[in-house]
Design goal:
Bound molecules: thiamine diphosphate
CATH architecture of the largest domain in chain A: 3-Layer(aba) Sandwich
Largest interface: A-B, 40 and 37 residues
Largest sheet of chain B: 7 strands, mixed
Strand content of chain B: 15-25%
CATH class of the largest domain in chain A: Alpha Beta
Largest sheet of chain A: 7 strands, mixed
Structural class of chain B: alpha/beta
CATH superfamily of the largest domain in chain A: Thiamin diphosphate (ThDP)-binding fold, Pyr/PP domains
Shape of chain A: globular
Radius of gyration of chain A: 21 Å
Distance between the termini of chain A: 45 Å
Strand order of the largest sheet of chain A: 3-2-4-5-7-6-13
Number of strands of chain B: 9
Order of helices and strands of chain B: HEHEHEHHEEEHHEHEHHE
Strand content of chain A: 15-25%
Radius of gyration of chain B: 17 Å
Helix content of chain A: 40-55%
Strand order of the largest sheet of chain B: 2-1-3-4-8-7-9
Shape of chain B: globular
Oligomer: heterodimer
Number of domains of chain B: 1
Number of domains of chain A: 2
CATH architecture of chain B: 3-Layer(aba) Sandwich
Structural class of chain A: alpha/beta
Chain lengths: 359, 249
Amino acid sequence: MSKVLMKGNEAVAEAAIRAGCRLYFAYPITPQSELIEYMAKMMPKVGGTFIQAESEVAAINMVYGAAGAGKRVMTSSSSPGISLKMEGISYCAGAQLPAVIVNVQRGGPGLGDIQPAQADYFQATKGGGHGDYRLIVLAPSTVQEFADMAADALDLAYKYRNPVMILSDGMLGQMMEPVEFRPAKTEEEVQELAKQHENWCICPNEDGVNRHHHEINSLEIDPLVLEKHVNNLFVKYAEIEQHEVRCEEYNINGDNEILCVAFGTASRIVKSAINDLKTEGKSVGLIRPITLWPYPYECVARALHKNVRQVYVFELNKGQMLDDVKIAVAGRCDVKFWGKVGGIIFTPGEIKEKLLECF
Amino acid sequence: METIASRPLSLTKTPFHYCPGCLHGVAHRLIAEAVDENGLRNVMTGIAPVGCSVFAYKFFDFDMAEAAHGRAPAVATGIKRARPEMHVFTYQGDGDLAAIGTAEIIHAANRGEHISVFFVNNAIYGMTGGQMAPTTLPEMKTTTSPYGRKVDDMGHPIRMCELMATLVAPYYIERVSLLSPADIIKAKKAVAKAIKYNKEERGFTFVEIISTCPTNWGIDPIKARDWAKDNMLPFFKPNCFRDRGEGVE
Ligand SMILES: Cc1ncc(C[n+]2csc(CCOP(=O)(O)OP(=O)(O)O)c2C)c(N)n1
């Protein structure tokens, strides 16, 4: 397939449909509205379901129902709406439901603004909803990657029966870049995907009255049973930590004097600064976490080559990823942070200036 | 020997955990009988609420989902849209449906989702120990209206059927009660009609069931029924508000 020029919000929607998502429930919010509008336009054409829900709360609970029925389903929103989805996300995690949630982040807290931000890192990776649970969190940095992650997120969600969040931002949602889509699943393949889950999901009881009824549930009133359930969730999370960590290494080598860590939109700007410094003979490497949970601690630790004298974390927030980098660095090097907030994006020049201060 | 009554297949053998005199069990049984009678057991899904009937998923013997407090109509929407071949109902209390879940019920009804809603109104929050509900009657004492519900301050009770009847989409809306054997027979007819319409994919069906909560009202079960007849029914009048199958608008 040839490349097409598309906005991130539309590309992720198109890619989700191609990956077999036939149900989408959401509530409008800037800067993700192109996503819901694209779904409204395209879902009827593929015989899928689109509902503009009465709220993000309702949307995530529709997702809970559809995922409980074993079908590929997605919802999306931006920061304030994601806060409303947190109750439902916790229920999905508890009931082990495979849901995909796209967050096109904007500035906060509160109503904040509608410009790009990365200020929902804590919410996405450290809980957000109540209880002991984990979300798989994917952070794209290009429109292409945003689109590819729709399919990856659906696959991961169903592989582990766990909610997956794609943590993008208003910049990735709004900007246009060339994308090449993966081939679309056929209708037979989509049907087949749902069939794989009929041993646990809500579905017609083909075996007649003999099959035990299926329950979609996160309630275990007996503390000993709940303890076992949560422990089982963490066995699953350990498996995810073992197999699903992803990161990009950019210009990582033995000459690095500074190691940067940045994800998503921030990482693109850091890359520009690194390229610029390279022409001046200064070696800076970048670790770009692609999975924010599970976090690529080992990738960061491995990249601490002997010449590195500064680790520098750049984010479009007040340093929400900083603690994770410090855990990875484990005191072997000083770790600095610089970021911008309010939906303001730093420039390559600003990053370069910060890095030059360390040489 | 001829069996003239037995446990519906759609109920598991798990004993109900309800308090003595509670009518949730009766409501469960009416639904289970209707599911059996319509031959829907293999394609039925119920959504349990948060409330005293939170464990309904243990009592109904077909696929069940347990929803967050008030969200059952949204969960039902997701299931029905994902698997139109399934028949879906929610079972909800008054706190669940008429307070925290008001948005979800109104909008599921307004979209005319092909689901049935069984709304058990006992004028109180049973599970959490007797707090005020949106359906608590004026001057009624609860643990959070210890001096009685003062309507100037706490609002008037909400009549959900009347509210639902302002919407265009719902196909069937009826209020019944479980306060006497005759009432239970009427309630059975309404529940059966909702399930039949559900089977026939007619649209959104809503049955409000007036019930009691002897434990949290602090009166014995027989007196609770009398109290409900004298106090609840004049405010929550049993009535068929809409039945498009019978031309009632
Ligand atoms: C989000 C949330 N808020 C509050 C509760 C606590 N809670 C559990 S049941 C309930 C009231 C249920 O009352 P009702 O719907 O009238 O049902 P009943 O117990 O009377 O059958 C409340 C407030 C909860 N579980 N979740």
